[in-house]
Amino acid sequence: MRIDVVTIFPEYLEPLNVSLVGKARARGLLDVRVHDLRRWTYDRHHTVDDTPYGGGPGMVMKPEPWGEALDEILGTATSPAGTTPAAGTTPAPMLVVPTPGGRPFDQELAVELSGAPWLVFTPARYEGIDRRVIDEYADRLDVREVSIGDYVLAGGEAPVLVMVEAVARLLPGVLGNAESHQDDSFAAGPMSHLLEGPVYTKPPQWRDRGIPEVLLSGHHGRIARWRRDQALARTAANRPDLIARCDPSSLDAHDRAE
Ligand code: 6GU
């Protein structure tokens, strides 16, 4: 997968050199290119923002640098949403626009993005990017405006780090064990919409605390049942909204499986 990020703070994306994403890049599974938006400014102050039409507080990112940056990065690779480029041509990139006004980012969207061959992220500062830029590229590409949660950040760079990490760990070969994200919180399957319960490792005694006995029992049925109960309790406590989305029949099936 190729990922381009256009930002006025390229150094903010340094964590993409570290850990899981850094290793995926080093192994050639991920081709990440970070671009400084100011490369596409030509005035002495490398201006990227201006005052909003209609008045109001804050500044808006000017359309020209974004347009030039995206034209250069995308080249001729454009294809309207819902179409596929002919064999042998450049794959259609997906444009991901981080904004608190976007659709909520969740595991389902992470899975969808992980299936794209090429993602282009446009993290903005200030009050956002001149709307005409999003409209311009939405005519030619699959454009997604995405928010990572119900709070306001100073810019889209941290959300890009979040989204790239969520997507990268889904790519084939990135995780050590091909199954290791199968039972994630939020993954599809019988435990979907349940949060993961507590986990334990050695030593068997730490301070005055031991390990729940069922985990030492070797009884896989009882262990699975206990984990499901723990997951359900944690979900009820922290995310009661998710309980409603649980498939009750899958829970009953799990119960009977013991
Ligand atoms: Cl994607 N951007 C900003 N600036 N704030 C956010 C966000 C994005 N998602 C949640 N808050």
Automatic annotation (TrEMBL):
Can you give the residue ranges of the tRNA methyltransferase TRMD/TRM10-type domain?
A: 1-244
* Annotated EC: 2.1.1.228
Task: List the GO cellular component terms.
Answer: cytosol
Q: Name one GO molecular function term.
A: tRNA (guanine(37)-N1)-methyltransferase activity
Q: Which Gene3D superfamilies match?
A: 3.40.1280.10, tRNA(m1g37)methyltransferase, domain 2
Gene Ontology biological-process entries:
tRNA N1-guanine methylation
Give binding positions for S-adenosyl-L-methionine: 148-153
According to its UniProt record, which reaction does this protein catalyse?
A: guanosine(37) in tRNA + S-adenosyl-L-methionine = N(1)-methylguanosine(37) in tRNA + S-adenosyl-L-homocysteine + H(+)
The UniProt keyword set, sorted, is: Cytoplasm, Methyltransferase, S-adenosyl-L-methionine, Transferase, tRNA processing
Query: Which locations, inside or outside the cell, does it occupy?
Result: Cytoplasm
State the Pfam families in the record.
Answer: tRNA_m1G_MT
Database matches in InterPro entries? Alpha/beta_knot_MTases (IPR029028), tRNA_m1G_MeTrfase_C_sf (IPR023148), tRNA_m1G_MeTrfase_TrmD (IPR002649), tRNA_m1G_MTases_N (IPR029026), tRNA_MeTrfase_TRMD/TRM10 (IPR016009)
Q: What does this protein do?
A: Specifically methylates guanosine-37 in various tRNAs.
Q: Which NCBIfam families match?
A: PRK00026.1, trmD
Can you state the subunit structure given in the record? Homodimer.
Q: Which HAMAP family match?
A: TrmD
Family according to the record: Belongs to the RNA methyltransferase TrmD family.
- Return the protein name: tRNA (guanine-N(1)-)-methyltransferase
Q: What organism is recorded for this protein? A: Streptomyces abyssalis
